[in-house]
Specification:
The chain is α+β, with helices and mostly antiparallel strands and 382 residues long. It folds into 3 domains: 117 residues, no CATH class; 62 residues, Helix Hairpins (Orthogonal Bundle), CATH 1.10.287; 151 residues, Histidine kinase-like ATPase, C-terminal domain (Heat Shock Protein 90), CATH 3.30.565. Helices cover 60% and strands 11% of the residues. The chain is built from 9 helices and 7 strands; from the N terminus they run αααααβααββαββαββ. α3 packs parallel to α4 and α8 packs antiparallel against α9. It is elongated, with a radius of gyration of 40 Å. 19% of the residues are buried.
């Protein structure tokens, strides 16, 4: 790195050099002013010496005192002009340097005030052709400030989207329950067990949505307890297949499992991973047509982790939407109704649970009507 590049990227060196420049300028101006004033002061001193030396009435002591006083006055006369000139030059240069240092700080102060008022789009200008290594501490601080505001803006957008999504998800069952209750009160809808069961189903759906949102909030804040124990993955998969049997039979979906023998124990919370599998299988059943099939595969991915895959023969997912399926309330096929009763955040919760175990989760699909496979990994118990 050249000296100019090193100077550009270090604020402390800039401050040191600015002080040094001020001192050097003061000295130069002072010497220049003294050099300019000194000849006339020296001539005045010489004239006084000529008069004093030819005065026979002066004693030697008085003559010495007068000559010293004349010399001191000559020096002071030179400094009377030189010192103010040096101070003025130093002040001008110091103001120029201080503005350069304070200007970016003022920009950040102004931007922070706007951000505190809710304007998260505020940014501090940074030269596009410079990398962080080319900037000093203030420049890198500006980049960090802009990155922070970008995250704040993104989080604010997510918050607004979440409020809108939750409002939409709650409005549908509430509207149904309200209309049903009004119909029952007015006698338009008969008081049958079937109608009461439909109302109960919508209330259960609201309850699941609230519980899932609370659970997701705890997961994202790190307040959700995870009790990791050495466990065989088959002890998680087999109970879930039994639990989902009735739903599979309703759509005549065939479920098969393929678990490699001698799989090492995984470090997991059995109840939480059951929840992950339940959420993934629920989505697979929902989007797999009648007489379709689903397969659960578990094998060792590498020396550190076990991989579980849930593969279905459902509607598939376009490649550009694979990453989005783990977002809250995201639906690949927005024309589908919410008749399944899902909360819309099951895969989001699953992603957080897998991450809490130190694993990863992702989805693969060859496209529309080609099925989907969701993979997740769990660390092997040490």
């Amino acid at each position: 790195m050249t000296f100019v590049g090193y100077l550009r990227s270090h604020l402390n060196l800039k401050v040191f050099l600015s002080f040094a420049i001020v001192i050097i300028v003061c000295v130069i101006v002072l010497l220049t002013a003294v050099e300019f004033i000194m000849p006339s002061a020296f001539e005045n001193h010489i004239d006084f010496m000529k008069i004093a030396l030819h005065d026979p009435t002066r004693t030697e002591t008085a003559l010495n005192d007068d000559l010293f006083s004349s010399f001191r006055n000559a020096v002071y006369n030179a400094l009377k002009f030189a010192v103010p000139s040096a101070l003025i030059a130093a002040t001008i240069i110091s103001i120029s340097f201080s503005r350069q240092f304070v200007h970016p700080i003022r920009k950040m102060l102004t931007a922070s005030e706007k951000i505190s008022d809710g304007n998260y789009s505020e940014r501090i200008p940074v030269q596009d052709n410079q990398t962080p290594d080319d900037l000093d501490e203030l420049g890198r601080l500006a980049i960090g400030f802009n990155q922070m505001t970008t995250r704040l803006e993104h989080n604010e957008e997510l918050r607004r989207e979440l409020i809108a999504d939750v409002s939409h998800e709650i409005r549908t069952p509430l509207a149904f329950v309200r209309a049903s209750v009004e119909g029952l009160l007015e006698g338009i809808i008969p008081c049958s067990n079937e109608n009461f069961l439909e109302i109960q189903a919508e209330i259960d759906r609201l309850n699941r949505l609230v519980n899932d949102l609370l659970e997701l909030s705890k997961l994202e804040s790190g307040e959700f307890p995870i009790d990791l124990k050495p466990t065989r993955i088959s002890q998680v998969i087999e109970p879930i297949t039994i639990q989902m049997k009735s739903r599979l039979e309703e759509k005549h979906i065939q479920l098969s499992t393929q678990i490699d023998e001698n799989l090492p124990l995984a470090a997991l919370d059995k109840d939480r991973i059951k929840q992950v599998l339940y959420n993934i299988l629920s989505n697979a059943i929902q989007f797999t047509p009648i007489n379709g099939h689903i397969q659960i595969i578990a094998n060792q991915q590498d020396k550190q982790s076990i991989r579980v895959a849930v593969r279905d023969s459902g509607i598939g997912i376009p490649g550009d939407q694979l990453r989005n399926i783990f977002k809250r309330f995201y639906r690949v096929d927005k024309s589908r109704s919410r008749e399944s009763g899902g909360s819309g955040i099951g895969l989001t919760v699953s992603k957080q649970l897998v991450a809490a175990h130190g694993g990863t989760i992702w989805a693969e699909s060859e496209g529309k009507n080609m099925g989907t496979t969701i993979y997740f990994t769990l660390p092997i118990s040490k």
